[in-house]
């Protein structure tokens, strides 16, 4: 099976790192800045960077509505850090008037870990991201990261902080085909999170193909 075509939203942020991690995970990757590019992809990554800047550029490039429409239509999307903020339905401590694309039924607190710990690294357990018992833990890099403060009933918690003052805070989630991490797995050579997203996109492709085949079979039966 050919690798899925995954777009990286390329308005701002660490586009190159995500592109590399996705390619290393078997995907074909294209930058997405226009509606036509968004329309062509089977999955999308919203990178880490600065969510307020991306919010502004999404407006300038007129991508908000098409992106919301594709998400409503079932497009798999993975957001890291600023990308997690943009996927959240609700933000706390957002800059004045800051909007989000939404889709993930979570409340995210922006810059949640506080100024003293602008950036830090932690080992996480995350069985659904390939870091379960017997696997090496996921080494997570947080840079002025958000955390997830509340999750809706359909949201699966994939990882929480193990220790320290932020112990128990939710830092990775999934809801259907939407995935988000507060940390940056695109930095470094451990591609388990990107592989999990590529698998999600492929599973989605198989579901769509079998739904299309069922529809075709029903049409043939009706004709016959
Ligand atoms: N590394 C990041 O993506 C930081 C996110 C940034 N603090 C924001 O609000 O967008």
Automatic annotation (TrEMBL):
L-glutamine binds at residues 49-51, 110, 143-144. It holds the Pfam family SNO. The keyword Transferase applies. Pathway: Cofactor biosynthesis; pyridoxal 5'-phosphate biosynthesis. PROSITE patterns: GATASE_TYPE_1, PDXT_SNO_1, PDXT_SNO_2. InterPro entries: Class_I_gatase-like, PdxT/SNO, PdxT/SNO_CS. The keyword Hydrolase applies. The active site is at residues 81, 184, 186. Catalyzes the hydrolysis of glutamine to glutamate and ammonia as part of the biosynthesis of pyridoxal 5'-phosphate. The resulting ammonia molecule is channeled to the active site of PdxS. Belongs to the glutaminase PdxT/SNO family. This is Pyridoxal 5'-phosphate synthase subunit PdxT. The lineage of its organism: Bacteria, Bacillati, Actinomycetota, Actinomycetes, Micrococcales.
